[in-house]
Design brief:
The N and C termini lie far apart (64 Å). The chain has three domains: 4-116, no CATH class; 134-179 and 232-414, no CATH class; 182-230, no CATH class. With 423 residues, the protein is an alpha+beta fold. It is built from 17 helices and 15 strands. The chain has helices at 4-17, 24-39, 45-52, 66-84, 110-119, 125-145, 149-160, 163-169, 206-215, 217-220, 234-248, 263-268, 284-289, 349-358, 362-370, 377-380, 411-414, and strands spanning 91-94, 103-106, 175-179, 182-188, 194-198, 223-230, 253-257, 270-276, 293-295, 301-304, 310-312, 323-334, 340-346, 383-392, 395-406.
Length: 423
Amino acid sequence: MLDAEQLLSLKGRIIESGVLGRSRHYARLFSFLIDCTIAGRSPREIDLATEGLGRGDDYDVGSDSSVRVYIHQLRKKLDIYYEQHEPEARSRITIPKGQYRIAVEALQPEAGREASHQEKGGWNLNSVLLGVVALLLLANLYVMLRPENESRMFEVSQTVSHPVWQSLLADDQPILLVMGDYYIFGELNANGNVARMVREFNVNSSSDLEELRFSDIAAAESYLDLDLSYMPESSAFALTKIVPILEASKKPVSITMMSDLTMADVRNNHIVYIGYLSALDKLSDLMFAGSELGLGRSYDELINKRTLEFYTSDAGLPEQGQRFRDYGFFSTFSASAYSHVILISGMRDAGVMHTAQALSNIDSINELVASIADDTDESLANFEALFEVYGVDRMNFDASIVHAATLDKAAVWSRQGTVIYDQ
């Protein structure tokens, strides 16, 4: 058990860490719980509402679930604190489920915790990423054993030295590979069990789900943060094309999900994005700011703001075996004085796959460069291209460049990208 001095010291470290967010409510509620623990007091829900959150005496426990929502989120924020700031702690504080008090939990040694986690069949993001890395290593081993590996290595070396990639690979700035993921949460049934998974385009992280809860308190009890996300199938194909290029640069490369990306990451790293246009999230405004393209009626449609030409994917509509048209998108631009961004994207799987294939082949890159009027190094570091891709069953079979243009570099930070389609 921690004494009063230790609890107060820990409270200060947790608040100063920033994991409680900018809302003053979490710090106030957390401080109230710590004070109650030191005083040996077990507060009720009404106490947390009035004394912890500053609600009025007319607070109705039966109709207002905000205290339960705050406690649920505070419990998760404490988990994040120990994961990020004190992973080696021998003990930690927690809020037991169904209770409104602080408890001290003794932790197993790291090896024991890992074994216990594996025995229970638990998986976290690191486990998933390690699995992806393991598969990539096996794939690389297979490629190395193939007779044509020497020619592939030569092609990769040519690609790495091309000006399109050199804008990102020529310096010592680390690279962050960002995977476009889709954040999903659970919806509970009357029995408190997860009835279905939910994907909302406006909910791309735990904090977004928290905001959704507070915008609709009545429905909050039915939402459950599962800490899950998924990626499209094309991501794996794109990784096999792009990872060898990044590896050949000999630069430090990290990987993260778009739902975890921060703007500090964008400033401190070069960014390589792989995923759907609809998963661009924090990079969307930067990308569209200097672009000749804008979003149309959905993420499956782009419009050329200069010519008013529409590009609409029907890859989400055809049945098995039917031919469809999709669009792949490439963009390269400076996000700041310190960092550069390369987007390998598309509306659906076929578009993403073709874009990754085009950016990993020296002949395709040269064809891409030939499609823009200005081939100076500065232009090659700030331009975009749209591929019209034809395919069957999510696979790309044929493609052509239907749009290519240099970007308005000054506009990236001077204005925001907008949706310009009018009914």
